[in-house]
């Protein structure tokens, strides 16, 4: 079912004049969207959750679309295995008299229409809109690192990949936004982009004041991350048997490779972006030690909290 909602003018005024309300509203939307992550694992509890979501979606499709198209529209695979699409009027449009839905396979375009595997469809105008590229990144752009191009680097792993969805070893000071495995099947890609930006800025911050500063991911850290995320993706609904644009065959073996989806919570990506694993990086020419600075801030916060607690305790004793 569609999820579009219209905000009343009164609510818009609340957003405009009451500080913090819009931020709270965005947090609530994020938390509600994160609930859908429960459908991702191939577990018994997740299967029950998907069954409820499927029943709801199927009931909506049967009540909205013409009965003659139900067999074409209602899939047999697990809900979530392919990209979920929220209806914006498409199902109702199928009731139109000048529209016919078909899954006939086009064989040849001829003078007056299209020959299909089941006959002939007359056509005056043909709009070709049946494909797009997936599992590819930076299409048409050649990025060259220390030991070759980005595509060569990805082929050595078996497919497109990126540490924390944005960095690759051998490509110093290079970060991607909405790179491999950054998109999600349950929430907004905007949040993933924001996390990618925060991660890049946090890693680059130690060298921003240096003319020759370099941050570079260690190869072993990248491999460890990629092996983990691909193993976890193989245990999700995206690998449950349907043919989708999320996955492709690995260039190294017959293993299924998913370079599109992030299998964890966006809250976890936010955490990994906020607190980088500094031992996974080689940093040269830095103007300060990021690990020391982080611990200094933690100790400072702890000292401040302890001082406030001590003050409140002594104040209470004196009353």
* SSE string, helices as H and strands as E: HHHHHEEEEEHHEHEEHEH
Widest sheet: strand ordering: 1-2-3
In angstroms, what separates the terminal alpha carbons? 60 Å
Report the structural category. mainly alpha
Q: Which regions have little confidence, pLDDT < 50, spanning 5+ residues?
A: none
Main sheet makeup: 3 strands, antiparallel
Shape: globular
DSSP helical segment count: 10
Give me the count of strands. Answer: 9
**What is the radius of gyration computed over CA atoms, rounded to a whole number of angstroms?**
26 Å
Mean pLDDT: 89
Summarize the amount of helix as a percent range. 40-55%
Beta strand %: 5-15%
How would you sum up this structure, described in words?
By secondary structure, the protein is mainly α. About 40% of the residues lie in helices and about 10% in strands. The chain contains ten helices and nine strands. It has helices at about 10-15, 20-35, 45-65, 70-75, 90-95, 150-155, 190-205, 220-235, 265-275, 290-319; strands at about 105-110, 115, 120, 145, 150, 215, 245-250, 255-260, 280-285. A hairpin with a 2-residue loop joins strand 2 (about 115) and strand 3. Helix 7 (about 190-205) packs parallel to helix 9. The longest helix has 29 residues, at about 290-319. The N and C termini lie far apart (about 60 Å).
